[in-house]
Amino acid sequence: MTDVKICGLREPAHVALAAEAGARYVGFVFFPRSPRAVTPADAAALSLHVPVGVAQVGLFVDPDDAILDEVLAVVPLDIIQLHGHEDPVRVAAIKARTGLPVMKAVGISGPEDLGQLTDYSLVADLLLVDAKPAPGAALPGGNGLAFDWRLLQGRRWLRPWLLAGGLTPDNVAEAVRLTRAPGVDVSSGVEAAPGVKDKDLIRSFITAARG
Ligand SMILES: O=C(O)c1ccccc1NCC(=O)[C@H](O)[C@H](O)COP(=O)(O)O
C-alpha cells in the first residue's frame, strides 16, 4: 500500500484526521515565508495529536544548526526534510548532528535532474522526488506544480522515496500507477486556500493514494 505524507499541517484536527485516515507521515513547515509555517511552539502542540506509528517530519530550507536545535528541543521529530540547496556534505552533517533520518527533496523538471537522486541516495535516508519550482517562484516547494511523471518510469534508487508536486485526490492514483512510487507527499493539493487544509480533500487524497 502506498505510504502517504500530508505536509504543511497547522491545525490539530487536521493532524488527527490525517493520522486516522491512514497517513504514515505528517509534515510541519519551519520556513517562515511559507503560508504553512509553524513556530516550534505551534509544532510542539500539534505533535501531541500525532499517534504512535505516524512519523513527524520537520521541513526545513537550508537550516543552520541553531534552528535545528531550537526545533528539536521542543518537537519530537522523527525525520528531517531538507527542501533547500543543501549539498550532500550538509545533508550528512545534519544527519550526524541531529541523529535523525533525513529526507532530501530533489526538484525535477527534466531528465538532466535525475542524476541528483543518485547522488543524494548515498547520504539521505529517504528521497522526495518533487517538481522543480518555476524560476522566480516565491517558495522552493509546496507550489502545486507537477512534473512529467514518465521521467521516473523504470528508475530505481537505493533509498525509499516519495513522489511530490502537484498531486491531488484526482491525479494521485494515476501518478502512483505510472511511477510505482512507494510513497506520495501532498500539501497544496489538499488545501482550500494557501495554508488552509481541507478535511474532505485530506480524506479523499489518502483514500485515492492507498487504493
Ligand atoms: O509547503 C511549503 O510552503 C513549502 C515551503 C518551502 C519548501 C517546501 C514547501 N513545501 C513542500 C511540500 O509541501 C511537499 O513536500 C511537496 O513539495 C508537495 O507540495 P505540493 O505540490 O503543494 O503538493
Features:
binds the ligand O=C(O)c1ccccc1NCC(=O)[C@H](O)[C@H](O)COP(=O)(O)O, 211 residues, alpha/beta, two-stranded antiparallel ribbon, TIM Barrel, eight-stranded parallel beta barrel
Shape: globular
* Number of β-strand runs: 10
Bound molecules: the ligand O=C(O)c1ccccc1NCC(=O)[C@H](O)[C@H](O)COP(=O)(O)O
| Main beta sheet | 8 strands, parallel, barrel
H/E element order: EHEHEHEHEHEEHEEEH
CATH architecture: Alpha-Beta Barrel
CATH classification, class level: Alpha Beta
Alpha-beta classification: alpha/beta
Average pLDDT = 96
Contiguous runs where pLDDT drops below 50 for at least 5 residues: none
Q: How large a portion of the residues is in β-strands, by DSSP E?
A: 15-25%
Strand order of the largest sheet: 1-2-3-4-5-6-7-8
Rounded to the nearest angstrom, the radius of gyration is 16 Å
Q: What is the count of helical runs?
A: 7
Question: Total domains, how many?
Answer: 1
Distance between the termini: 7 Å
| Percent helix | 25-40%
Family: Belongs to the TrpF family.
GO molecular function: phosphoribosylanthranilate isomerase activity
Keywords: Amino-acid biosynthesis, Aromatic amino acid biosynthesis, Isomerase, Tryptophan biosynthesis
Organism: Paracoccus tibetensis
